[in-house]
Amino acid sequence: MKIKNGFRITWKTSRNLPVEYFILANVQFEGSVIGHLAGRPIREIVIDDNGLQYRFVGVAPRDESGRFDVQSLRAGEWIVRPGLVYAQDPTLASNRRADRAA
User: Fold this and answer.
1) Is 54 helix (H, G, I), strand (E, B) or coil?
2) Is the pTM of this model over 0.70?
3) Rounded to the nearest 5°, which phi and psi values hold at 10?
4) Burial 14-52 (b: 16+ CB within 10 A, else e)
5) Mean pLDDT for the chain overall
């Protein structure tokens, strides 16, 4: 029996899932400022609570109702408020993870 991912995004289900499922919260910003959105700086890298690092890849589009269009996200991409898209980058080493192991 093959186990399927129960969190697969489809056109019908993505409209029912809370947008919060696709938003990284409590992130720390690092790296260079590479632009601005809504008067706030866009940082090159964010780090989540688990020490995983994500690199800025774009701005999150919105659907016709004004919600973030989570269906447009690719695998490994997450939204960071106010509407930035960051992708997990396994090539970025996190010193935080090494500190936790010690």
Assistant:
1) strand
2) yes
3) -130, 170
4) beeeeeeebbbeebeeeeeeeeeeeeeebbebbbbeebb
5) 81
